[in-house]
Write a structure and sequence with these properties.
103 residues, mainly alpha, 63% helix, elongated
Amino acid sequence: MPRGDKSKYTDKQERKADHIAESYEEKGVSTDEAERRAWATVNKDDGGGKKPGGSGRGKDTGHPAAHRGGKLGGEAAAERPAAERSRSAKKAAETRKRNAAAG
């Protein structure tokens, strides 16, 4: 199998790479570089292609590249006033309570 062959990647992995590449292109990264980074991220997450014959098939990956999202999201929450965060937390607790009673 030649280097760069994508035949062992699943449709989901290809969609994931496309989505990541689009995101980089929106930030001004060149198309080739965005594509390279996208596949590197998919490989980091999944350990390569998942179709039969791929070395990492069937193993849990933990999605390490996706862990950065929590760090980025925390900044936005921290900028909100305490009263607004508290109101959100109370609303969430109320929803969980209501769903638990219904289920």
